Amino acid sequence: MNKSITTKKLFTKKRLLISIPILVILSPLIIFGVYSLIVSPILDKIDHDKFKTLDTQMQSLYAKIKTASNGAEDWKYSAVCSANYTGDFTTGTYDCISSISTEKTISSLKELTDMHDKYYSITNSSNIFDQTPSNSFKSAGDFSKEFNVSIATKDYAENITKTQCTYDILLNQTESNTTHRNSSYMLGSPIIDGVGASLISIRCDSTARKSWYKTVKTTSNLIP
Fold it and tell me: To the nearest 10°, the Cα dihedral for 210, 213, 217, 221?
């Protein structure tokens, strides 16, 4: 009787010792399976909804800006994503942006300040953004004081998704007057021939699990 019990205990112990390394080997596969089948789809849904909400919010601001413009400026809206890289290899994540922007050739400081006053006011009072006291309005290159190469900017956070967004207004030389062989493109440089290229952009940018918008090669430009 005792021999039979001892034999069973030894057999059970042997089976347990065999099972431990098998469980060690299978555990990563089990975890990966659970993540792939249950966790990953949930995270994808949350991420998708975030960028869907951001797009909806920015589309509402775009509609207000288009109405205020009444065709005076050619405003455009873009929502695009590009793959993130480490060296030559993709990371599996995407840089996704939503951008409201316009470009216009102007010939006076008043044109620049008029556009800024109109569209900055709409952006800064928009209910899609949180107002953060630490995010102050910044400018460089004698913006709004001289008809020079200059820029002004302010950072925001979209109030539902908390995505970081930036308002930028830039005055630069026209393409024909911009060259890297001189300093005409440097901040503070007078606009050549009295004709400059203005750009206004309200851009939101965040890392995504997938390409929830149209996929492009790069989102590095202010206007994708």
Answer: -120
